[in-house]
């Protein structure tokens, strides 16, 4: 279904963004470890630096995730693609129509 395909694309883009943050965080941690090995910073300082980097990346992930969600919402709204909740309402309406049609067919069959 098109809406599922769109959701898959959104999910993949979101995961790719988080993956980029994670890769960068790993590279920075490696850099900090290399600095410790070279004796340019202390083990204690490296731990606080790694902790600070982790906090900043987590904050960045949360901010990016929020911005991404808002922007994708705007894009999807501009494309006039129904939301998941709108699709669920349509599905429920269809189920109700099918039930009513089935009831009417039974009623019509009983008149024959």
Topology:
Layout: H1 2-37, H2 43-78, H3 84-111
Give structural notes.
This protein is mostly helical. The protein has two domains: 2-81; 82-112. 89% of the residues lie in helices and 0% in strands. The two termini are 40 Å apart. The mean pLDDT is 77.
Q: Which features characterize this protein?
A:
112 residues; mainly alpha; 2 domains; 3 helices; 89% helix; rod-shaped
In whole angstroms, how far apart are the ends?
A: 40 Å
Helix/strand structural class = mainly alpha
Total of domains: 2
The largest sheet, given as strand count, sense and whether it forms a barrel, is:
none
Care to count the β-strands? 0
Percent of residues in β-strands: under 5%
Low-confidence stretches are: none
Which H/E pattern describes the elements?
A: HHH
Q: What would you report as the Rg, rounded to the nearest angstrom?
A: 26 Å
Helical content band: over 70%
How many helices in DSSP terms? 3
**So what's the overall shape?**
rod-shaped
Query: What's the overall average pLDDT, rounded?
Result: 77
Task: Describe this structure in a few short sentences.
The protein is mainly alpha-helical and about 110 residues long. It has helices at about 1-35, 45-80, 85-110. The protein folds into two domains: about 1-80; about 80-110.
